[in-house]
Amino acid sequence: MPDRSPRSPRLSTVVPPCSRRAGDGRLTTALDPLDQGPQDACGVFGVWAPGEEVSKLVYFGLYALQHRGQESAGIAVSNGRQILVYKDMGLVSQVFDDASLESLRGHLAIGHARYSTTGASTWQNAQPTFRPTDDGSIALGHNGNLINTHELRRMVAELPSMPGELDLHSRAIEPSTSDTDLVTALLAHHPDSTLEQRALDVLPLLRGAFCFVWMDEHTLYAARDPQGIRPLVLGRLERGWVVASEDAALATVGASVVREVEPGELIVIDENGLRAHRYADAAPKGCVFEYVYLARPDATISGRSVHQARVEMGRQLAREFPVEADLVMPVPESGTPAAAGYAEESGIPFGQGFVKNAYVGRTFIQPSQTLRQLGIRLKLNALEHMVRGRRLVVVDDSIVRGNTQRAQIRMLREAGAAEVHIRISSPPVKWPCFYGIDFATRAELIANGLDVDEVAASIGADSLGYISRDGMVAATGQQPDSLCLACFTGEYPVALPDESLLGKHLLEASLSSPVTGRALPVLNNP
Ligand code: SF4
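^ thats the input. predicted complex w/ iron/sulfur cluster below
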């Protein structure tokens, strides 16, 4: 059992970036900035399991969640006396090796894989975040994006300084600029109450999407926003507990699924077992895009297999937009289940017309200008013998800017395709997401300015069909009013503040504000 003696030393450390920098965290988009699909906002994983190699469990859990964030990765571990945080820019497999995991020993750990939505992609903003408290320290990981960052910044500014707190501004040390760090600061300040009680006070103040896992030296905490916008599941190990963004990550570490963390619920796990608190009434508005694209196909969300949902979206597309064709092919990998469904429903043979470079986006080597001009060819090649002379139905999950589809269609025609009919398993994306998915600005979204025929002409397709909103929702098996559909409808389930108070670089902008001329009290242990 961990040592809970009040005389335990309270050594808490964040390991600085090592000399072996993994990269700048801009791996995928650096290949071709114009070719960027929806980007997710992080995967979280937490383990409370005395006697297990918890950092390795977290490592493999994060590995299973890598698709949710590829900019930076980190693990925090506690041995009951101190928390050690190790984080860096890059993929999970680039940040950690045997030696680093060997040094992360304890009974309790959390991990995080980041895609940035508030705060730049920098080491300072990599997670888990870390803060000292009056009686120890906390480390926290966040999936989602908050929309009242401006309010949280004011609340943090009003907190009294901690004894011994570093003045980062006077030391010219770059501070953290994420919404997550503000929440960590609010939670860390609990001089007259427990962290558990402080969480019950702070969580109702947050607006937007959040799945948090955090820890002090002894306890694992997990919380989900009242809308349950992002998924979070609870699992059981023989000798402990696990929480993860997706249940597929539980299977990876041999944990069984217990249940989803409920919207509006706080879970606390320590040597006394598991305690669940409801800090807000549940008002479910799960992100429909988790079913369309974001989650792993082997995940189950709200009782619905994501793979089954995607296959059904393909079937529905075939019913809504039939076409005479010779081959149904996916844009790999995310379009594959929907393409299988389309083929099944239409009776048109299914086949691969593209081959994806499986390791693309896993390099930090910047392509030369000549290579960059090849754009999509760094990621995909057409299989000429499959497409030549054929009428193709190409199934993909979404169209954001249209650049990707335009390049794919050109590639297929160059390979000899007779016709190219595009079928998309989500409706036209017309609005940005403020709850943790980075599509593009409204002006950049191709469906925002053009109708369907104009989009088809713009990308060079012979025909284009988007699944209907009702068809997509039905495929998820969820009640329409329990889903967020804001990027299709513009109806945001958690009311947004003024546009000037939103944006990825809100806190960076404030840091250099000529109005205040003061540094934000947003600290990060360097
Ligand atoms: S706006 Fe779209 S991507 Fe964002 S949470 Fe809602 S459904 Fe998901």
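Residues 229, 287-289, 433, 435, 437, 484-487 surround iron/sulfur cluster (CB under 6 Å).
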